[in-house]
Amino acid sequence: MRTLKYSRQRESIKNCLMNRTDHPTADALYLSIREEFPNISLGTVYRNLNLLVELGEIIKFTCGDGSEHFDFTTDQHYHFVCRTCGKIIDLPVSMVRSTSDFFTEEMPGHAETHALFFYGECNHCMESKLES
Amino acid sequence: MRTLKYSRQRESIKNCLMNRTDHPTADALYLSIREEFPNISLGTVYRNLNLLVELGEIIKFTCGDGSEHFDFTTDQHYHFVCRTCGKIIDLPVSMVRSTSDFFTEEMPGHAETHALFFYGECNHCMESKLES
DNA sequence: ATTATAACAGTAACAATTATCGTTATTATA
DNA sequence: TATAATAACGATAATTGTTACTGTTATAAT
């Protein structure tokens, strides 16, 4: 079995992700982390993000914009995607029901997890549209 | 304004997608259509699929496997993704409780559309696991 | 028939991600 | 504490899915 070894880069990636409320892509994180580690490699960012996903410490998802997003919040929750500014907002856990609670009829299989995305315009974008 | 012109390739792409219950990627469709048009270009498949999406005749979605899938069914419905065989099964909205029922709290914006995916194992895969 | 142009096939370009490779840093063991 | 084993590194090449470009062909309007 493989034994993990500490790395300052991984620590930094994890911390960086923890302190952000957006849901950055690997590349967005890479840009941030380069401030602390100017010569970190993009490959290292990808490698560690995927490792953290495997370990269950973070989650990864795609919302249809062509790239993967990473989220430090691992417990079940949903996302609101603003099509105007691109922001991805976490929807509070209080809204969440268990997977089986969704079904009214018999399913074509056993669903372990589910993902729910809302697409529209966030309050901030709607307000700034009124102002102009 | 641009006026559409008929093309046998587009017709074939549309028919092919209409006659499939899976939700093929552009590449999967390309392989099928080459049986009828041996020298069709993958670019033509992409171009026409995106055009059909623009026209609202088909829809496009990603379920997290890194590529876009195309669906002839345009009315609102959900998807069940089997993680064992990769099959994507359409779920009529009637099968799932109205999503708005779950949201007691205020949303952080105005949601125009939403997408809901279930991930697990389909009945077929569960059965073949029992047999072996 | 002629002309305009949408669509084509082929291919190059692109963006996101993963794999490779020689080197460095971390941890286990002597 | 020195040494050995190897996880992780940075740099870069390769891969994958998709889009854009280019010269040619097919469709439909005049």
Question: How would you describe this protein?
Answer:
The structure is a homodimer of 132-residue chains. Chain A contains 4 helices and 5 strands. In chain A, strand 3 (78-82) and strand 4 (88-91) form a beta hairpin. The first copy, chain A, has 132 residues and is of the alpha+beta class. The mean pLDDT of chain A is 92. Chain A has 2 domains: 8-71, Arc Repressor Mutant, subunit A, CATH 1.10.10.10; 77-131, 2-Layer Sandwich (Dna Ligase, domain 1). In chain A, helix 1 crosses helix 2, helix 1 (8-18) crosses helix 3 (42-54) and helix 2 (26-33) crosses helix 3. The radius of gyration of chain A is 18 Å and the shape is flat. Chain A has a 3-stranded mixed sheet. A two-stranded antiparallel ribbon of chain A has the order 1-2. The A-B interface holds A 61-62, 64, 80, 82-83, 89, 91-92, 94-97, 99, 101-105, 107-126 and B 61-62, 64, 66, 80, 82-83, 89, 91, 94-97, 99, 102-105, 107-126. The structure holds a DNA duplex (30 and 30 nucleotides).
In CATH, the topology of the largest domain in chain A is named Arc Repressor Mutant, subunit A
Give the end-to-end Cα distance of chain A, rounded to a whole number of Å.
Answer: 60 Å
The CATH architecture classification of the largest domain in chain A is Orthogonal Bundle
What is the radius of gyration of chain A?
A: 18 Å
Give a quick account of the main beta sheet of chain A: strands, pairing sense, barrel closure.
3 strands, mixed
The H-level CATH homologous superfamily of the largest domain in chain A, spelled out, is Winged helix-like DNA-binding domain superfamily/Winged helix DNA-binding domain
Number of helices of chain A: 4
The total strand number of chain A stands at 5
Structural class of chain A: alpha+beta
Biggest interface pair, counts: A-B, 39 and 38 residues
Classify the oligomer: homodimer
Fraction of residues in H or I helices of chain A: 25-40%
